[in-house]
Automatic annotation (TrEMBL):
The keyword Flavoprotein applies. This is pyridoxal 5'-phosphate synthase. Pfam families: PNP_phzG_C, PNPOx_N. PROSITE patterns: PYRIDOX_OXIDASE. NCBIfam families: pdxH (TIGR00558), PRK05679.1 (NF004231). Residues 71-185 form the Pyridoxamine 5'-phosphate oxidase N-terminal domain. The keyword Flavoprotein applies. GO terms for biological process: pyridoxine biosynthetic process.
Length: 254
């Protein structure tokens, strides 16, 4: 399946962003919600297991999701920093979580991939209605077998797209991108290649949590914030084999 062709020039012009009055553009100071639905109190949280709390909130967000909402429940902001310490942030999809960490998939040669090679540490943020979760920690590569198994589960069009895109590199236009997609499609079209293999430059990253914060909006900006932290007992070259001490929980002021 080829990607949607570029729209004709007239349609593109009609769809162009309309000009706005710069004076009214920034007048959003009165945009605010009253956070009055629910709370997060110590008595309802297992202070030794933030992943249990994450799971409870994630599943609630999934259950509440419907097509009218602006984002998938597993969409999260991913912040990385380059070698100079400059932060960069984008949205990716969470594809797996457990006690070992939070997994997403991407192109290793993308901007984020390059930054993670330079500085293997990341921060994630989820936003679900009146709740937010922040995760911080070292990042490791997902094993090849795990990444290949996930890649195999993707729709064929997404698999072809992974081969076609040199993610984060400039390209002359939509037509050139469509040509790259068609070339990748042709490469895997022969009957002898019914399965699209995982590109070597594509894979997963696992953010191993050392800090997880749960935020619940409350009236008068008196929000609930419970933060879990833990420290390594013994450092290992690979963060997944690091032995971590127990989690401790602390309330923060809003
Ligand atoms: C809802 C949503 C989900 C996305 N999921 C992913 C994803 O799982 N992996 C990915 O590489 N990019 C994903 N993207 C695109 C990224 O936001 C970003 O444009 C891309 O990864 C390039 O980022 P980089 O140049 O900082 O590496 C998603 C974007 C949105 C809006």
């Amino acid at each position: 399946m080829a990607p949607t062709p570029a729209p004709p020039a007239a349609a593109a012009a009609a769809a162009a962003t309309p000009k706005t009055d710069p004076k009214t553009l920034h007048n959003i100071g009165d945009r605010r919600l009253n956070y009055d639905a629910g709370e997060l109190i110590e008595e309802h949280v297992d202070a030794t297991d933030p992943m249990a709390q994450f799971r409870a909130w994630y599943e609630a967000a999934e259950a509440a999701w419907h097509p009218g909402l602006p984002r998938e429940a597993n969409a999260m902001s991913l912040a990385t920093a380059d070698a100079r310490g400059r932060p960069h942030c984008r949205i990716v999809l969470l594809k797996h979580y457990d006690a070992d960490g939070f997994v997403f998939y991407t192109n290793h040669t993308s901007r984020k991939g390059v930054e993670l090679a330079e500085n293997p540490y990341a921060a994630l943020v989820f936003l679900w209605d009146q709740r937010s979760v922040r995760v911080e920690g070292p990042v490791v590569h997902v094993g090849d077998d795990e990444a290949a198994a996930y890649f195999a589960s993707r729709p064929r069009g997404s698999q072809i797209g992974a081969w076609a895109s040199k993610q984060s590199q400039p390209i002359s236009g939509r037509g050139a991108l469509a040509a790259r997609f068609e070339a990748a499609e042709a490469r895997f079209a022969p009957v002898g290649l019914p399965v699209v293999p995982k590109p070597p430059f594509w894979g997963g990253y696992r953010v191993v949590p050392e800090r997880i914060e749960f935020w619940h909006g409350r009236p008068c900006r008196m929000h609930d914030r419970l933060v879990f932290t833990r420290s390594p007992v013994s450092e290992a070259a690979e963060a997944t084999t690091t032995v971590w001490g127990p989690w401790s929980m602390q309330r923060l002021m809003p």
